Amino acid sequence: MVASYDRQVTDDAGRATAPAGWRRVSPFARPRTPGEWVSDGLVNGLLTLSWLASVAGGRPDQIPAWFWPLDVALGGFACLALWWARRFPVTVALLLVVPAALSLSGGLAGPFAVYRAAQLGRPRAAVAVAVLHVATGLPYHHLFPLPGMSWLVYAVVIPLLYALAVTLGLLGRSRRLVIEGLREAAARDRERYEAQLTATRHEERERIAREMHDVLAHRISLLSVHAGALEFRAGSPAAPSTAEVRDAARVIRENAHLAVEDLRELLLLLRAEDDLATGRPQPRLDDLGRLAAEAAEAGQQVDLVVDVSAAGLRETTERTVYRVVQESLTNARKHAPRAPVRVRVSGGEGARVRVEVENAVPVGVTDADLPRGGNGLVGLAERVRLDGGTLVHGVDGGRFRVRADLPRAAR
């Protein structure tokens, strides 16, 4: 079976994605697209109508009566064979060498077959087939000269016609290869971006694992201390009173509950901040004022309003609120250093906490100039999502807005 040809491409891992020569592929590997069905139908329909018009017009005077039925048959075969020119471009062009050379009614099928060979086949094969068409077609004028056309004119027109067909075919081929290259590059960029997102989320979860490990270790140590003290007092002469036993049991129960909750958070979130490794205290909702003051010392204008109480909020929710504001201020400092930043932390709707941060987009900066989900925003979105909330960000009315909605209580 004759096969058509397509490019072979490879990526960094050696898979087929970037131009690297040619490879044989099955002509039936890809079905026609709807657009190809329409274009092939139009071309074949027009050529068939041209053939029918030639047949209906009767036999030309220069063609003998005995040869006219053969001319009509060859022309019909040429028009019919063109339907497979997209899948077998070089093969069809070779099959039409004789019909295109000896049939006046199907003469237009030859240049179009060469065009398809140049567009979809190998360039060298297309040029060779075009030369073969010209070489076999020129003697036709000696057998049946066209009225009013000398052989010299015929010898110039036919090569120019096939040269035009080859040129247009090669231009179409170049356009197709450029589009395929752009699609392959876009696919590789998308794969790299997805890999970067995965790596960022993995790093965030590793950091939360370190954080929750420290918190969980703290809870377990409290359990151990209180249980050890209760065990020591129970075995000593000064036995604890009922109230002391009840208080110790209450502390153990509360810390056991918190330990279970922290363990659940560890399994769900699996991320934390790097400063936990240094033993620094974790940020809370009350630290937002200090964060705004530090930003103001750095020259940033921050309008902070906190309209929610930390009472009843989980520690992870407080930390997430802090990180949302921190990351938003950092992005505003980087991309809009002189723009005032408005920060609002409110009760939101229902049992949720809403964080809204917005700043004006600098004059002359378009949406295309703004960062498209860098590692900071990606990690922040992952943190909010795993904490049971949602995060949206983007440009609205000339201002860059970040909004996070977080649950007040555990899910």
UniProtKB/TrEMBL annotation:
<feature type="transmembrane region" description="Helical">
    <location>
        <begin position="91"/>
        <end position="113"/>
    </location>
</feature>
<keyword id="KW-0812">Transmembrane</keyword>
<dbReference type="GO" id="GO:0005524">
    <property type="term" value="F:ATP binding"/>
</dbReference>
<keyword id="KW-0067">ATP-binding</keyword>
<dbReference type="GO" id="GO:0000155">
    <property type="term" value="F:phosphorelay sensor kinase activity"/>
</dbReference>
<dbReference type="InterPro" id="IPR011712">
    <property type="entry name" value="Sig_transdc_His_kin_sub3_dim/P"/>
</dbReference>
<keyword id="KW-0418">Kinase</keyword>
<keyword id="KW-1133">Transmembrane helix</keyword>
<dbReference type="GO" id="GO:0046983">
    <property type="term" value="F:protein dimerization activity"/>
</dbReference>
<keyword id="KW-0902">Two-component regulatory system</keyword>
<keyword id="KW-0597">Phosphoprotein</keyword>
<dbReference type="Pfam" id="PF07730">
    <property type="entry name" value="HisKA_3"/>
</dbReference>
<keyword id="KW-0472">Membrane</keyword>
<feature type="domain" description="Signal transduction histidine kinase subgroup 3 dimerisation and phosphoacceptor">
    <location>
        <begin position="204"/>
        <end position="273"/>
    </location>
</feature>
<keyword id="KW-0808">Transferase</keyword>
<keyword id="KW-0547">Nucleotide-binding</keyword>
<dbReference type="InterPro" id="IPR036890">
    <property type="entry name" value="HATPase_C_sf"/>
</dbReference>
<feature type="transmembrane region" description="Helical">
    <location>
        <begin position="65"/>
        <end position="85"/>
    </location>
</feature>
<feature type="transmembrane region" description="Helical">
    <location>
        <begin position="149"/>
        <end position="171"/>
    </location>
</feature>
<protein>
    <recommendedName>
        <fullName>histidine kinase</fullName>
        <ecNumber>2.7.13.3</ecNumber>
    </recommendedName>
</protein>
<dbReference type="InterPro" id="IPR050482">
    <property type="entry name" value="Sensor_HK_TwoCompSys"/>
</dbReference>
<dbReference type="GO" id="GO:0016020">
    <property type="term" value="C:membrane"/>
</dbReference>
